Amino acid sequence: MQVRAATRGSALALWQTRHVASLLECEIDEVVVSTVGDRNTDVPIHSMGGKGVFVKEVQAAVLDGRADFAVHSGKDLPAVTPDGLVLVCVPARADARDALVGASWASLSPGAHIATGSVRRRAQLAWHRPDLVFSELRGNIQTRLEKLESGGFDGIVMAAAAIDRLALDLSIPVDRLDPAIMLPQVAQGALAIECRADDTETIAVLRAIQHADTRRVVDTERAFLHELGGDCDLPAGAHATLGDDGIEITGMLASLDGRVLIRERRVGTDPDHLGRAVARFLLDERGGRDLLADLR
């Protein structure tokens, strides 16, 4: 079966699409799409509205028939799926953690300069270390590494999965941050594959590469984000794992400056109920609604 996959054009996005092709064991025509987030690399993501800046045009290519399905980084995908599409499968997850590149967390000097384009990462680092200085950082992986070398930063933060997937052999420190320090973005390290809801043939093909355990934890994290409002660029994070007692999830919401940070950990069995319950607790019992009101 010859299928067409919509994808962004970065090296990481193309790796992800070709990885899906290897899992499917079939030929894929790559439909490369430029997104708002790709075209506006000098604008902070949260200033562009956050919602779907890396996925809307990719989704449109599927909806208008240019592609049969779309391959997304799970962390870029808002929690609300557009009408006409279905999140059909989630393959096995890579490392969900964030990585500090250029320094180790324990060795950061007072007033160290960290570059990141993520409000979630900045807020959590500032919560632990109010002395840190931050700069905005956008661009693809190679661009960010080049800016680290030339920009006078002590470190940058990126997804550990990106380092692994691109097989980057870095000669500088790479410190994978424990979720106790830095909760990942929802669905970080996972791939999310969407297709048209009425395309039964493509759905059947793609479901063969669904990883059931990954889908359960990703659905739990996405339910948490959905309850918060569906925006993948809030200063919010969640990490779910499977254990003997079911699904364990920790969710976090913070102020942009990191002065306020609230977390909650719970265990349950139903992904949607559990993820939403953690979000509702943060919103209703820990002052999260006031935090969201300040953000908006």
Q: Tell me, rounded to a whole number, the average pLDDT.
A: 93
Say how many strands there are.
Answer: 13
What amount of the residues lies in strands? Answer: 15-25%
Strands of the widest sheet, in order across it, are 2-1-3-10-4
What is the straight-line distance between the termini?
A: 46 Å
The main sheet comes to: 5 strands, mixed
Q: What would you call the structural class?
A: alpha/beta
Q: Poorly predicted ranges (pLDDT <50, ≥5 residues)?
A: none
Q: What's the CATH architecture name of the largest domain?
A: 3-Layer(aba) Sandwich
> Superfamily at the CATH H level of the largest domain?
Periplasmic binding protein-like II
The CATH class name of the largest domain reads Alpha Beta
Q: Radius of gyration, rounded?
A: 19 Å
Number of domains: 3
What is the number of helices? 10
CATH topology name of the largest domain: D-Maltodextrin-Binding Protein, domain 2
Helix-strand topology string: EHEHHEEEEHEHEHEEHHEEEHH
Protein model, in words:
With 296 residues, the protein is α/β, with parallel strands linked by helices. The protein folds into three domains: 3-92 and 189-210, 3-Layer(aba) Sandwich (D-Maltodextrin-Binding Protein, domain 2); 98-176, D-Maltodextrin-Binding Protein, domain 2 (3-Layer(aba) Sandwich); 236-295, Porphobilinogen deaminase, C-terminal domain (Double Stranded RNA Binding Domain), CATH 3.30.160. Helices cover 33% and strands 23% of the residues. It has ten helices and 13 strands. The strands form three sheets. It has a five-stranded mixed beta sheet, sandwiched between helices. A five-stranded mixed beta sheet has the order 7-6-8-5-9. A hairpin with a 2-residue loop joins β11 and β12 (246-254). α8 runs parallel beside α9 and α9 packs across α10. The radius of gyration is 19 Å and the shape is globular. The N and C termini lie far apart (46 Å). The model has no long low-confidence stretch (mean pLDDT 93).
